[in-house]
Write the structure tokens for this entry.
Amino acid sequence: MISGFYYEFISFPYGYRYSMPLGILWSKNPTFKVYNNTRLYSILRDNLDNELFNLLLLSPIDPKLYYFSLIHELEKRMNYHNGEHPVLDKELGAWYLCKPTFKDSRDKVDIYGCKSFKHLIGSPPPYSRAMGCFVELLVIYTKVMAGIKPPLHLKSYLEGLNWCIHRSSPNDKDLQRISINIINRIINENDHL
């Protein structure tokens, strides 16, 4: 991985049937932010002193898994090992392990590092334009849902992302439908900010 780049994963906290997309800024000590109105924020806070607590991270092959995680359908589809964590299925993508450690808290955001980070199983998928555009769309969606005001030219930016997703995944009608659904939610939520 390249230092200074964000990598997008789906996080699965040990001991919880819960998942959430999570961007990790890669460096010698990888870091990530968690907003205070998410369940992952509470889960991490509840486990600050738990030395056995870990996050499983999935780098999925199918970008729709990010969406299914965001709406909390993914964790219902997973098989669990002793109720602790999902069974590692390399058909879904590459799996990693992060031992989170609290670093800082500011502006309703907690910052964590991965005290240790290691690859467990599976191969990372090749990068696709559709995945990049779809993940960017989900980043905007999660920020709007967290109450963060989006960029000024939001509608034209969303149109560009939608065009990118449709053009780079011409045969994936589900991904195209989901992207339009997310864009409508972003616009509706943004009208309330």
Remarks:
- The mean pLDDT is 89.
- The radius of gyration is 16 Å.
